[in-house]
Amino acid sequence: MTAARVAWFNCSAGVAGDMTMAALVHAGADADRVAEILGGLPVHDYALSFEPALRAGVSCVRALVAVHEHEHHHRPWSTIDAMLAEADLPERVAERARRVFRVLAEVEGDIHGVRPEEVEFHEVGSTDAIVDVVGVCAALEVLGVDRVACGSIGTGHGSVVTAHGSLPNPVPAVLALAARRGLVLRGLDDHRELATPTGAAIMAALADHVGALPDLVVEARGYGAGSIDVDGRANVVQVVVGTEARAEASGDSVRLLEANVDDVTGEVLAHTIASLLDAGAHDAWSTAIVMKKGRPAHTLHVLCDPALTQRMIDVLVAETGTLGVRGTMVDRWPQRREESAVDVSGHLVRVKIARGRVKVEHDDALAAARSLGVPLRDVLRRAEELAQPEPN
Q1: Percentage of the chain with pLDDT > 70?
Q2: Is residue 138 within 8 Å of residue 37, measured between CB atoms?
């Protein structure tokens, strides 16, 4: 199985959207291809460029987003989410970008005491912030990155001026994002806003590993420059891109999502599981549980590619009305299998063949049994016999 391609971000000097995008371009993401993907957005009142820079003697790249002066600064989250859903973007780019803005809306809603749908973005709703977020996701896609990881994030102290007035540094949104995802903040003796909400949201939403550099076969590295050169510290975001070095070569990492529901019928549970599988889940199932006060309930479980996380959450919420979904990364070791089809009395029945086992596609066998007027078990047995390899 192909090892996952990982981008690990060293944000010890701080993090911002433009620095993160620039680091990926410096690591080899083609700037023209990034700009081409960004062209799928219904936003055209900006100019994006990249220029070489030096920070504490380190060669790096700086990203510059120039926005026309008439650009409307504020946008509600619902408008940005709809824009991204309808934009002509690669699926994983749109999914990752929507995930970033969704987590921002959720923490901003908590801070201001409103529902996420009512959140009005200020700085993070501007065109340059949208370009930064989608640009990061586009650069990840250009580099073929499957997973994101990050180390500790440098923050300043004192206060910073925002659209809401003077706020403590780090600002509430950065602290809320760190608490939500378990990000590690590292205080620096600097009164500037080193970690922006946009940069922190990218890490909180996309990183499935927080900590030291994971075991990687390093293939590229890049440095994204901050706006100024700081004495005694390289004001950069560093990215290391490589493939996972796995002791278990056959394993891969997947997202496990779970939701507890106590007001959903068995028919809805079955439909939700089918919808999750149709949406691309590796597997989905439910288990019976007992919640507080002795309430009978079920837990819905979903295994999926990390890039499909938001899609699976959307299905769970839409189909069950659950008020929350939790998730973690797990390893799995799927057995090698082949897919084929056998002819059972004129009916094609699909089968999966693994070492020592044949699994017959239930729906095909059922359709054949009904058409032939024979018991289902007879069709299953005959399909398994036909799928067995010929003896040498």
Answers
A1: 94
A2: yes
CB 265 within 8 Å of CB 235: no
Summarize pLDDT for 313-326 with one digit per residue, the tens. Answer: 999 999 999 988 99
**Residue at 120: amino acid letter:** E
Domain co-membership, 365 together with 293: no
List the one residue out of 241, 210, 198 whose CA is nearest residue 63.
Answer: 198
Of the candidates 76, 88, 78, the one whose C-alpha atom is nearest the C-alpha of residue 43 is: 88
In a domain, 201, yes or no: yes
Phi and psi at residue 70, in whole multiples of 5°?
A: -80, 0
Q: How many CB atoms lie within 10 A of CB 14?
A: 27
Last residue of one domain, picked from the residues 244, 270, 292: 244
* Helices 91-112 & 77-86 angle (0-180, nearest 10): 170
Q: What is the tens place of the pLDDT at every residue in 367-388?
A: 999 999 999 999 999 988 888 7
> How far apart are the C-alpha atoms of 234 and 199, rounded to whole Å?
17
Tens-digit pLDDT profile for residues 28-67:
999 999 999 999 999 888 899 999 999 999 999 999 998 8
Interhelix angle 77-86/127-142, rounded to 10 degrees, is: 40
Domain range for residue 324? Answer: 253-332
The letter for the amino acid at 173 is A
Query: What are the distances in angstroms from CA 291 to CA 8, 167, 302, 374?
Result: 38, 40, 20, 43
**Distance between CA atoms of residues 179 and 187, nearest Å:** 15
> 3-state SS of the chain: helix, strand, coil percent to 5?
35, 35, 30
Do residue 279 and residue 190 come from a single domain?
no
